[in-house]
Amino acid sequence: MIWVNVVVQGLLVGGFYALFACGLSLMFGVMKVINLAHGDMAVVAAYAAVFLAPKLHVAEVWAFIVIVPLFALVGYLLQRTLLQKAIDRDPFTTLLVTFGLSVVIENLLLEIYSGNGQSVNIGALIAKSWQVNSIIYVSYVSLVVLGAAVVVLGALQLFLSRTSTGRLIRAVSDDREAAQLCGANYKHIFGVAAAIAFATVALAGIAYGIHTEFFPTSGGGNLLYAFEAVVIGGIGSLWGTLIGGVALGIAQEFGAHFNPAYQYLAGNILFLVVLAIRPQGLFGRKGSLNE
Amino acid sequence: MDGASKEVPPRADLLVVNELSVYHGQLCAVDNVSLRVGEGEVLAIIGANGAGKSTLLFTIAGLHRQKTGTISYRGDDISRLVAHRRVRRGISLVPEGRRLFNSLSLEENLKVGSHKAAEGPFDIASIYALFPWMVDRRHQKVLLLSGGEQQAVAIGRALVANPKVLLLDEVSLGLAPIVIERLYEVIPDIVRQGIGVLLVEQDVAQGLRVATRVHCLLEGKTSLVGTPAELTSVEIEHAYFGSDLHDTPSASETS
Amino acid sequence: MSDATPTLPLARGGVSVERSSFSPIYTLVGTLIIAVFFTAAPWILPASWVSILSNFFILVIMATMWNLLAGYAGMVSIGQQGFVGLGAYAMLYFAIKGMNPFVAIPFAIVTCAILAYPITYLLFRLRGGYFAVATWVVADSAMLIILSIALLGGGTGRYLPGLSNLSPSQLNHYTYLATWVVAFVVVVATYFILRSRLGLVLSSMRDNETAARSAGAKVTSTRRLIYVIAAAGCGAAGAVLAISQPFVQPGNAFNLNWAAEMLFVSMIGGLGTIEGPILGCVIYFVLQQSLQNYGAWYLIIFGTVAVIIAIWQPRGLWGAIRDRFHFELLPVGYRVRDKVRVKKVKKQKRSETPPASVVTTSE
């Protein structure tokens, strides 16, 4: 029974990691960019929820309605300006730029909001959970987040496969020049992909802020787990990202069960093991890591 | 010398390339090349590997920037126009190696091609009319198609945009002769619509068969221009291989 | 073709292949002067300057190693702080076991090298951004493992034993000397590595890996060697770091800020040059000292400048100086001097954007 609970908790956390990871996965799939500031963008969204909401006279939990579209816009603009310039140079530059961005963002948050922990306040809902039996309990918030992750991933999948823009995004990912030859403005498409990535990461960040106390430096860890989820699940597969997130969550819960200090180490170990024996991840294509 | 000949009646110029020079870093790939393509014409560019043919087409399509020279389309200077806008104006390139969207199906490839299509005779249904076998296979992933079928999809993808100038790069590469013939059979259908075709071919015979005019490139420079009727095979061989081979006994001498 | 070995047109008059733009004697004398100055520094400079210099040298070590890894071998790592931490904790371990900390420095270095070697077999399955994040996972894992070892102080940390018999000023001096010597050795060693055949292989790998392989270069084992060297170097930095801040704790030793600092400093100073990271360190310390009272603003500014430089002047400050004045203090490439063409080429270079370079091959 204990193990069932471990799996259940891992599943719930996994949904959260998947939400985090899908933006990272999208940006890499389309632009071949690993956004090292990805985790920090989530934290910025959490800060925005806490500090912006009062200015908008909404309860923090509803702040996402404003923040998510705002982040989509920010993502589009950032991609069309800074990131595109970095991409035009080479992948090396892109890495350095996103890393620089990450450090700048973290320290700006530190300067502006101090190092104290913050939390997105949703009132009493945070503590409510569904007691399945004496051992298994499912927190409402985690369940909602898992549901949100599935919905978002599903919607994204549908968007990519059914809509014209989604098709263009897939085409640009496959062959950027050939897409240009079909009249596609690839820079705009990149922008759209970034907008989607930033929107999902904003959602993930707010969910994170609800669930956990966060600090200016919380972004780093989240980037790491998002990245691990993507690699474990397989690059280039959205559902793989969900599975990867869940696998990561379960591994961490397993580790925590033995010793709280081993929680994140267990996740890292799973990542390194997958890297060692099946580098393309559970659902990825072979050779997709050699970009 | 720009290839105007007595035997072909002058057509309205769709594409004019003037003294174009294109570099790859410090290597000159296209050296001072001028050409023009008129309505309903087929200009075949022939030349050996590395002669600069693909670079030339890439530059005309806008994926590569020329160092000097101009490109005009229907009278407008498009030399600095970005690639995706040239497509919307009416220049479509079928690139070497097909470059289909591998994770998309056949029909999706065509749909991408048509998303910025101009008004014109070609739409997805008409492509299916040209290549009837596509109808049953249209939801298949293009990776599963044969080389010749993929080439047909690539041509279709360019056609659905309703270009006025169609650029074809090495359509016959890696394909069996009978497949190549089938592909070339659609060229008259295309030309009949008034579309100007600029095609690059390593297979000289095939190029000559469909061409209204021929333009030969050697190491980036224009070596020969004319119509298939007025050019002899010796002339073409010299232009293709270069007639100044000192060390080896003349390879260009034929019976 | 009948021509067997074509005669090099370069052999004709007025052309030569050289190492640097001025005589190596200057470099040697310059180095000696610098060496004497910095060795004598504890007696010349005030004590506060001496500790600043210690930290400066630690950063120089890290930046030089990061630059070797990323600027020369093309491997962007954001996990070198893992080896800084491992070096610090190896030092702590040996000190706990009774070794004199200063004696333990080479042992810490070797420990890091030994640990780095098997890691390469995992990491090298990845490239580019994935490689970078994986290095971070490795560093994170190293920290998590250390955290669970009670002997080493766990999460709270512990003091480095073996230093209590020294007076504060003695400690200051010896610490300084340790950081100075290690930094000097690291920079000089890097210089010689890059001037050697290994350096040539690195350049060729960076320009075109496939071509390098087909010319016989052992690309993977070279990469492995460089990674191990960089790990050892960062371990050295960690070891002297542990001496300089005798309370060793994971939050500090494994801090991601080290990664940020070595990266920014190399980028601003100039990737792919030896002088660049050093110049970057100088700028960094000047900025940090001036903005001391403003919290993390120096890092924000530095990071922003680094991002701007990465996009608009990727060769960094030293790269710009070098391009403009053809001036190198520590040349590692070759120059072809065609006295007749030099003028024409200088003009050409000014209009070219990096990395094209007609005259020097020292990228």
What does this structure look like?
The complex is a heterotrimer of chains A (291), B (255) and C (363). Chain A contains eleven helices and two strands. Chain A has 291 residues and is mainly α. Chain B has a single domain, classed as Rossmann fold, CATH 3.40.50. In chain B, helix 3 packs parallel to helix 6. A six-stranded mixed β-sheet of chain B has the order 6-7-8-3-9-10, with helices on both faces. Chain C has 363 residues and is mainly α. Chains A and C meet through helix 3, helix 4, helix 9 and helix 11 of A and helix 5, helix 11 and helix 13 of C.
What is the CA-atom radius of gyration of chain B, in angstroms? 18 Å
Identify the quaternary structure here.
heterotrimer
Counted up, domains of chain A total: 1
Query: What Rg of chain A is obtained from the alpha carbons, in whole angstroms?
Result: 19 Å
Overall body shape of chain B: globular
- The largest beta-sheet of chain A arranges its strands as 1-2
Gross geometry of chain A:
globular
Task: Report the CATH topology name of chain A.
Answer: ABC transporter involved in vitamin B12 uptake, BtuC
Secondary-structure-based class of chain A equals mainly alpha
Give the N-terminus to C-terminus distance of chain B in angstroms: 30 Å
Beta-strand content bin of chain B: 25-35%
What integer is the average pLDDT of chain A?
87
Strand percentage of chain A lies at under 5%
The CATH class of chain B: Alpha Beta
Secondary structure: number of strands of chain B: 10
Number of helices of chain B: 10
